[in-house]
Amino acid sequence: MFWVNIDDIKIALFDLSEILRVISFVFLTPIIFSIIYAKNYHILYLLERIYIFIIPAVITYLLYLLFKRIKSASETRTKHVIMSVALAWLLIPIIGSIPFILSNTLDPIGSFFESMSGWTTTGMTMIENPESVRKDVLFFRSLTQWIGGIGVIALALIVFMREGTISMEYYAQEVGKQKLKPRIRDTIIETWKIYSVYTISCIVLLIIAGMSPFDSINISFSALSTGGFATHSSNIGFFNNPLIEFILIIFMIIGATSFLIHLRVFEGKYDVVLRNIEFKYMISIITISVIFITLFVYIVEGCSDIPDIINTGRDVLFHSVAAITCTGFSISDLSKWMQLPQSILIFMMYIGGIYGSTAGGIKILRFVVIVKVLEHTFKKMTLPKTAVLRIGINGKFLEYEEIVTIFGLCSAYLIIALIGSVIITSFGFEELHAMFLTLSAMGNVGLTDVPSNLWFTMSPVCKIILTMLMWIGRLEVFPALILISPFLRLQTTKKVKRKI
Predict the structure, then answer these.
(1) What is the pLDDT at residue 81?
(2) 183: closest CA among 263, 279, 266?
(3) Distance between CA 285 and CA 65 in Å, rounded?
(4) Which residues of the chain have pLDDT under 70?
(5) Which of 36, 220, 261, 420 could anchor a disulfide with 438, C-beta 3.0 to 4.6 Å?
(6) What is the dihedral of CA 487, 488, 491, 496, to 10 degrees?
(7) In whole angstroms, what is the distance from residue 198 CA to residue 166 CA?
């Protein structure tokens, strides 16, 4: 773990200022929908509607001006970028809760929960009836996911794909190191373009499939960002349209696929998708899960006719894709699922999507490493002691430090989720439901398997726990620990002084 000092914090705040400047203008975007859906155009009425977005925009811009004045002689390093991003994903959701509070949509804790869920592209919601919420507020909620999604991609490119990491080495082979470094800024700009093209395509296809323009915009924002917010209380199940579900399955997979791969696809090199080991694992896991769960339900519940089997398969396919892509869309009540299918969804939420995508979880590349290590261990047990084996992916051998880091992160991820689930269990939730919720929050998935009457009456403590798990999961654990390391250091120093 990196220890940080005051100078590090100054650098991080200075770098954070540029992020805040951009976000201040993002807060003003929903005003377009405030005007479009205004009942009349009297100036006082319009001001009453748009001030809920102007206030957070002004606050964010003032913080930009404040942090911009903080100077430091040191240069920005990786840990400063990590700190800036960690602070951004904490500070922006706090400010982003203001529109929900001022519009009387939610109470302060619920508003912070909703805002964090949006910016981290989690998709858990405390809004019981979205149909009764103002259109501009609903659009703002979807917009936070769309912006948060591209923010995740930028984070992956800048921080998690730094020199010496397995993700950098693997994708340097896949797309060429010249596309990753030193032209990282150009790569992010190209990613923005591709992200926008996919979003527009999804909007158009959903309209053709029968969805209203407003719904299609919001749902497309959620699909590409693998977020999960919907404009109706029954989520995607409201539409009951197989074509809409199929379109969303395609775009959920697109959102959960590395945008470094999409860069090559837009260059006409389509074979890179089929060669990518993470993509192959994702499709394989989805296929195996759908077949297994469908057969399990068929055997246990005794589905006797073809329509029942088809509907079950359709339900399982949609939720399996929603789980592993960390989107969180749903078409039915998961609280009615049996424990084994729910456990498989938990496993898929833990794995998550592909590096450099908008998805959460530990990422499939890390899961591949775990599988390779287990395979290596088994071979070592069956071969002579003199046999020399090395663990590799696509010809790239893994170093001991890389394997330790991956296992450390995956273990820390699971331990934090377990701690969260224990706390939530103490508030009356069953163990499996608590684990489902914590991994859904930490994986930035958004699926819930508890009845709505329990979900919307959840304790404020549970809401805060899930909110913080969203933040920790979005940052992939270690950046959050780096940010709080000064406090850990302070506590350690105090204990040492007491002993002296």
Answers:
(1) 75
(2) 263
(3) 48
(4) 1-4, 73, 78, 153-185, 301-307, 385-389, 394-395, 481-500
(5) 420
(6) -140
(7) 28
